[in-house]
């Protein structure tokens, strides 16, 4: 038992993916599928139909077509481990019923804690080593997740490990990558993402960038890998903080990088900046809920080694939320993107913030901020602090700021404030054009979605200031307030009616 941010947490170290799966099984959070499932579209379709609005189970596929023979080295695939708030609570060592609002708060605290990893000599991930001609990515059950994908995507939930060549600080991010031959993985890389920053530095030194893709470990890896952990901070330190225990790392075989010793599968390799080495990648069903339809030549991983434990479990996920069907990234993002935004506001010195929430349906692309506004322009200060933070690269496109009487976990409350406290003619809507942003956003013109040319997308960011406008004169007819009272009866009037409630024939 440990304490973070005033909340008591149970041990949250599960050792490996099997330990996490076992914890989910015991909690009734897992559905094992023993019927044969085709890796070709059927598996991904099952996930999208089972995940619901974050209320579906985690899934363990035990019988995958073409990977259910006796000589198959990898027979199982796990997904959805972080597709619900109850499972995120488990990852933090909290009771499963902990509400999202509390998860954001605990996440804020943990993101500011660090537990450094420790290096160990070896671990289960070294039980098997494939090199040279033995390397073949399709020895593992890599699905074609969606009908419209350009191919089979091996990197959908892998922790992509790179390091800054100047500081050796390791970054772990989740980035997509497609199988383009037995030892080639083209990837989508934006220069504004942290591994894109590393890549630029390796290129400047005239060297290929070493990479290690970690497929399958504890939930803290996907959670931090998909989160905008500040540049220069290693996700391994934050994983340690989530677990309350250091991450055990082993050195890779063919690249100078470190990976979790208890991982399922690690793919090692190099990415060259030479355009002649680029290979076609895409389309892919993206986090926006739309396909990114471009198939273009992209930086490509040349795989030098694959290590894996005995009977490894493949880990992957589908991307994209649609009304009624949320995948893991949007559920996770609603917590980590809100927590990161709140921390960014605090470190920028914006006062009075009482809650931050980016709903899962768009993975925190729209962000609601609740504040006690005490001076004119405070909402604009909040928006500018957010947009200047590197975490805003693929999020916080539209920022809503509301007063402290509005519950931002209640869409209707936010919409009510939008309707009655926003006057675009009075400066409540601010547009900040031609910004950096998510290049995958289909509302962005196609020419502006080129990662190689621009390194980012092109967003106009919008602030909806739905706070009561402090630029208005206090009104003497309203006791010096700027807004009239709402129609809600007074507390005293309500108490009097409540006392006679049953008398009026109401049941409760
Ligand atoms: C399942 C999943 C898939 C993702 N795919 C990509 C991707 O293909 N490319 C990308 O730039 N970001 C992708 N992201 C978002 C990044 O992981 C996220 O922006 C993270 O902050 C990147 O790490 P970094 O901040 O260290 O660059 C994905 C996130 C998740 C959870």
Total number of strands: 27
Write the CATH fold name of the largest domain: Pnp Oxidase, Chain A
Oligomer: single chain
What helical percentage do the residues reach? 10-25%
Count of alpha/pi helices? 12
Question: What order do the helices and strands come in, and which of them pair?
Answer:
Elements (H helix, E strand, L loop, with lengths): L1 E3 L2 E3 L7 H10 L3 E4 L8 H9 L7 E4 L14 E4 L5 H7 L8 H11 L7 E2 L8 E3 L22 E3 L3 E5 L6 E4 L3 E2 L5 E3 L7 H11 L4 E7 L3 H7 L9 H9 L4 E4 L6 E3 L4 E7 L7 E3 L2 E2 L5 E2 L3 E3 L1 E9 L4 E3 L12 H20 L5 E5 L8 E6 L6 H10 L10 E6 L7 H11 L7 E7 L15 H4 L4 E8 L24 H9 L9
Parallel strand pairs: 3-4, 5-22, 6-14, 24-25, 25-27
Antiparallel strand pairs: 1-2, 4-5, 7-21, 8-11, 9-10, 9-13, 12-21, 13-16, 14-15, 16-21, 17-20, 18-19, 23-24, 26-27
Bound molecules: flavin mononucleotide.
The site of flavin mononucleotide has 21 residues, from strand 10, helix 5 and helix 8.
Task: Describe this entry's structure for a reader.
The protein is an alpha+beta fold. The chain has two domains: 2-315, Electron Transport, Fmn-binding Protein, Chain A (Pnp Oxidase, Chain A, Roll); 328-466, UbiD C-terminal domain-like, CATH 3.40.1670.10. The protein is 23% helix and 23% strand. The protein has twelve helices and 27 strands. The protein has helices at 17-26, 42-50, 85-91, 100-110, 194-204, 219-225, 235-243, 328-347, 378-387, 411-421, 451-454, 491-499, and strands at residues 2-4, 7-9, 30-33, 58-61, 76-79, 118-119, 128-130, 153-155, 159-163, 170-173, 177-178, 184-186, 209-215, 248-251, 258-260, 265-271, 279-281, 284-285, 291-292, 296-298, 300-308, 313-315, 353-357, 366-371, 398-403, 429-435, 459-466. The strands form eight sheets. Strands 7, 9, 10, 12, 13, 16 and 21 form a seven-stranded antiparallel β-sheet that branches. Strands 23-24-25-27-26 form a five-stranded mixed β-sheet, with helices on both faces. A four-stranded mixed β-sheet has the order 3-4-5-22, with helices on one face. Strand 3, helix 2 (42-50) and strand 4 (58-61) form a beta-alpha-beta unit. It is globular and about 85 Å long. The two termini are 40 Å apart. It binds flavin mononucleotide. Residues 156-157, 171, 173-176, 188, 190, 193-195, 225-228, 317, 319, 329, 332, 394 line the site of flavin mononucleotide. Flavin mononucleotide binds next to strand 10, helix 5 and helix 8.
